[in-house]
Design a protein that fits this description.
Elements lengths: L1 E10 L4 E11 L2 E9 L8 E7 L14 E3 L30 E2 L4 E2 L6 E10 L7 E11 L10 E8 L5 E7 L5 E3 L12 E3 L11 E3 L22 E3 L9 E3 L5 E4 L9 E3 L2 E6 L3 E2 L6 E8 L10 E10 L7 E6 L2 E5 L9 E12 L2 E9 L9 E4 L9 E8 L6 E11 L3
Parallel strand pairs: 4-5, 12-13, 13-14
Antiparallel strand pairs: 1-2, 2-3, 3-4, 6-7, 8-9, 9-10, 10-11, 11-12, 15-16, 16-17, 17-18, 19-29, 20-29, 21-28, 22-25, 22-29, 23-24, 23-28, 25-26, 26-27
């Protein structure tokens, strides 16, 4: 059924080393399946379990192998630690035991000592020692160990394509997960650091460093049918979120400072500022400054834009006319009046009431002796799913009778 063999590896007068091999019958053929080799000068003891042919393995130096498992070409060599029990924490385990001193008289490990590691190696040439490391997980002590102090860091090393292994991630004894972060400070308040930054601040739970000018440090992506908030900042002492980006992209902040108010203020802001002056040309009605409000910018009832425009009338006795438009609707019209110089200003608020219904309230400031109705309300019927042109027009007799210097468009959501 099998046999056990003893033979010399080296058999000189001064040096003798031997091996012991175990062979079994497999399909009428006696094949060797295990070999125990004694250490030679400077070599390590080696035990190999293999299929048919004793493997050639390194037995000296930093690549010395003590236990070697090899199976047939198409069969993976698998090691199993098994345990069958009803006790919750009993399980198969692989223990890596590190000490200083000696086996007979062990001593405590110290800060910086590697406790154990798992390596993933591969051959790059035909000789038995021509293999490199593609990945390593290593545990390292952070202090001199006692019965109640066993501080440990865990390091993960990988080889980027075209390079050799380097640290890519670590889980520190403080509970800090560091991804591509090998520089800078951290403490027990730090849970996550991403990127290799040399000036991390402590007392920060999570921090991300972009590492390159063209890199976005954080991206939050909702689903195509997102209904929950995409992003929120919450204080557990207050009932309302401090900051929210909802499912349709509207940002809001909590109303009230350091209060438990349930209210919120949606965040809007400047959509466009145009400071390129424009003026009428001759007697025709001339577009002055224009802005194209993107399609569906007012996508929810209650969404609004606020428009501010200002400029001046030329000093002469020519009749002049100034209008502001939202789409095709004139939301303010001075009428044709003899403005003999002076500045003008129009402020307008346009609010969505439906897919093709808006209300606009516009206020004029300037020569209120001529413009006796300086507040006008209109009801535009622009289609909100299309882009809308917001503009002022000027009309006079000569060029530059009506001048516009600036227009500011602010957008505010209601959702």
């Amino acid at each position: 059924a099998g046999r056990q063999d003893w033979f010399w590896n080296v058999a000189t007068h001064a040096t003798r080393t031997a091996s012991m091999a175990w062979s079994l019958v497999n399909n009428a053929t006696v094949s060797e399946y295990a070999r125990l080799s004694a250490p030679g000068a400077g070599n390590a003891v080696n035990f190999a379990i293999h299929a048919g042919t004793a493997p050639t393995v390194p037995t000296s130096g930093t690549q010395a192998i003590k236990l070697y498992l090899i199976d047939a070409t198409t069969t993976p060599a698998i090691g199993v630690a098994a345990n069958f029990t009803a006790t919750t924490l009993d399980c198969g385990a692989w223990q890596m035991l590190r000490g200083r001193g000696s086996n007979a008289s062990p001593a405590a490990i110290q800060s910086g000592d590697a406790i154990g590691e798992i390596q993933w190696d591969g051959y790059y040439s035909t000789t038995s020692t021509s293999f490199g490391q593609g990945a390593v997980i290593r545990a390292t002590a952070t202090e001199t160990w006692t019965s109640s102090a066993n501080g440990t860091n865990l390091f993960f090393y990988l080889a980027t394509t075209g390079t050799t292994i380097a640290e890519k991630m670590s889980l520190r004894n403080t509970g800090t997960l560091r991804i591509n972060a090998t520089s800078g400070s951290f403490d027990t308040t730090t849970l996550l650091q991403v990127g290799n930054y040399g000036s991390w601040s402590v007392n920060v739970t999570a921090a991300i460093y972009a590492q390159a000018n063209g890199t976005t440090p954080l991206q939050v992506i909702g689903t195509s049918g997102q209904t929950a908030n995409v992003f929120q900042v919450f204080n557990d002492a207050l009932s309302a979120n401090l900051f929210v980006v909802n499912s349709v992209g509207v940002a809001s902040v909590r109303l009230g400072l350091n209060t438990a108010s349930g209210g919120k203020a949606n965040v809007g802001g400047v959509a466009n500022v145009n400071i390129t002056s424009a003026a009428n040309v001759g007697a025709a009605q001339t577009d002055l400054i224009t802005y194209s409000l993107p399609a569906s910018a007012l996508g929810t009832n209650g969404d609004r834009v606020e428009v501010q425009a200002f400029g001046a009338f030329n000093t002469n006795v020519n009749a002049k006319r100034l209008k502001m438009f939202f789409g095709s609707t004139a939301i303010f019209d001075t009428g044709s009046l003899v403005f003999n110089g002076g500045a003008w200003y129009i402020y307008a608020v346009i609010t969505r009431f439906g897919a093709a219904v808006q209300t606009a309230i516009s206020v004029f400031d300037g020569n209120l002796t001529l413009v006796t109705t300086n507040c006008q309300e209109t009801v535009p019927t622009e289609t909100m799913s299309s882009a809308i042109t917001i503009k002022c027009t000027g009309q006079g007799t000569n060029n530059s009778d009506v001048i516009q210097d600036e227009m500011i468009v602010n957008w505010y959501p209601n959702a």
